[in-house]
Design brief:
Distance between the termini: 62 Å
Strand order of the largest sheet: 1-2-3-4
Order of helices and strands: HEHHHEEHE
Structural class: alpha+beta
Low-confidence stretches: none
Largest sheet: 4 strands, mixed
Number of strands: 4
Radius of gyration: 17 Å
Strand content: 15-25%
Oligomer: single chain
Amino acid sequence: MNKITAILIGSLLLVSAGACDNAARTSSQAPENANQTTQAPDVEKAQNIQKDGTSEVRKDQLNSDIRAREQRNKMAGSTANRTDDDLQSEVRSKLEANLPASQLTVEAKDGAVKIAGTVPTQPQLARIEPLAKEIYGVKTVTVEARVAPAQQNAQ
C-alpha cells in the first residue's frame, strides 16, 4: 500500500510540475510563450475578447482570484516569497481585467515579469508596466508587447 501511495504522489507531482511551465495568457489567441509573436486578431475576435474582458462578472472573478492568492500567502506567512506561478497568474488577471482585447502572455521568474503579445492601442501598451507593478512581489517588468489594431477579415 505504501508503494502505491508513493507512486501516486510522485506521478501527481510530475504531472503538476509539467503543467507549471505554461505561460499565463490573457486570451486564447495570445502567444504560447513570451518569445513567440502573434498577429493582430480580426475585428470579430477582438470584439469577443473585449466583450468578455469588460464583463463585470469577469472583472469580479479576476479581482477575487487576486485577493484569494494574497490572502493565502498572508495565512501561510510568506508574503515576501511569492511563487512564480502566483505572480504570473495575478499579473495576467490584472492585465486581462484592465486591458480589454489584449493578447498578452505573462512569464515570471524570481519577481521578474516578462510580458509579450499585442494590444489594440498605444494607451493600453503604456498601461502594461504600471498595472503589472501593482502586484505585490513583482520586482521588474519587461514589456515586449506591441500595438496591433484589429484587422478586417479578408473574404
